[in-house]
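**Folding the chain**
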Amino acid sequence: MAKYDDGFKRKVVEAYQNGEGGYRTLAQRFGISHFSLVRKWVKIVEARGFEALQRRRTKQHYTSQFKQNVLHYYLNSGDSYLDVALQYGLPSGDLLQSWHQKFLREGIEGLSPKQKGRPSMSKKKKQIQPKKPMTREQALEQENELLRAELAFIKKAPRFRNGCPRTTQERDARIIYELRSEFRLTILLQATKFPKATYMYWQKRLEQKNPNASLEKKIQKIFDEHHGNYGYRRIQLALKAQGINVNQKKVRRIMGKLGLKGTKFIRKSRRYNSYKGTIGRVAKNLIHRRFYTSIPHQKVTTDTSEFKYYEHDKNKKLVIKKLYLDPFLDMFNGEILSYRISERPNAKAIMDAQKEAMDRTDDCPYRRTFHSDQGWAYQMKAYKKQLTKQNIFQSMSRKGNCFDNSPMENFFGLLKQEMYYGVIYASFKQLKQAIEDWIHYYNHHRIKTKLGCSPIQYREQMTA
C-alpha cells in the first residue's frame, strides 16, 4: 500500500497553490518525511495536472531506444531527473535515475528488457557451423594486430584522463572511436574487451551535434583571455556580462569536459617586513577591521611588497635582485588608486604614490582615512604631514597583525599567485612591466566575485 494516497497528495498541493506555506512548512504541517516530496508533487501537477498524481494500475513498458533517447537528453541538458521525467511523460524521476544507474553499471545492454522465468526448452538449438581454422600466418597476423591496437589504446588513454569523459566507459568509447581509422572495429573491441552494443550506443552519441558547442567556445575563449586565472564562478559572471545566463554547475561541468583547470598556485615565501621599530609616532587603529564602505575614496589602505628577479653579474653568475611595490587601494571596490615600483625601499616612492592617491580621492564628500601597517615609511613626519595638511585621518594596524590590513594582503596574494609564482623574471624592466600590466588588468577587466565585475566597472556603475 502506498504511504500517501492520491487524496492526501491533492490536499497538500492545493494547500501550496492557495499560498498556505512553502515546501518545508507544508511538509512539517502534514507530517511528510521530506519537503522534496511536496516539491515533486507540485511540479507534477503543474506539468500534467492532478490526474498525474494517481497511481497507475498497469505497468508501463518502454523500449530500449526510448530509454536511450531520454538518457541522451538528460546527459546533455543538465536538467534534473524530475524535470526530464516530466518532459518525457515518465511517472517519476526515480525511474529515470534507475535507468541511468543501470546504464553506468551494465552499459547499453542494461536498458534492454530482461526475460523473466525459466528459459523455454522447446526451441531447438541452432546448428553452428564450425569456423575454418586459421593458418599459422593468419593467427600471427591477427595477434600482431591485436597487440598494435592494444598499444595504440594505451597511448591514447592519458590524453583522456583529465578531459571530457565523465566515466571510464565513455573514455574507452571515445578512444575506440578515434582509432577506427587505424584498426578494424572487431579488433579494437576484442583488444579492449568492450561490448559492441555499448560501443554502438556511444558512437551514436559521439556523431550527434553537440548542443553546447557555442557555449564551450565562449568558455574556452574567456579562460584563455584571462590566462587560466578564472575558475567556474568568475567565468559564469563573465558569461552573464555578455547576456548569457547559465548555471554555475553547467559551467563547471563544461570546464571539466574541456580540461580547463587553473594553472596558478600559491607558494609560501618570506614576507617583506618594513617594521623597524618605533621611529616616529604610531597612529591609532581607526579601521578596526571595518573594511567595508559604501562611499568611494573614503577608506584607503597601503603596504609594501617585495619581489625577486634574477640577473647575471660581471662574472656571469646568477644574482638575486629585488623589486618593491607600493600601492594604495580603495576599500570601496578594491581598486588600485596609485602605485610606485622601485629597486629598493625608499621614502620618495611611497610619498609620490601617497600624493597621487590623495589627489585622486579629493572628491570624497567625507573625511578620508588612510590605513597602513606600522612600517617605517608610514611613521615618517613627512608622510604624516601630507595627511594632516589635507585633513585626512591616519590609521595603523596593530604590530605584527596582518589581519588588520587584510584587503592589502589579499591583493598582494592575488597578484603574486596570478603573475609571479612559478615564473622567473630575468630583469627589473621585465618584472616591472608584468606588474604594471597585471594591475591594469586587475582594475579594468578582472572580475571580483563579490562585486560581479571589475573594480572600475563597479565604481562607474555605483556613481553613474
In short: The first strand starts at residue 299 and ends at 302. Residues 139-207 form one domain. The radius of gyration is 33 Å.
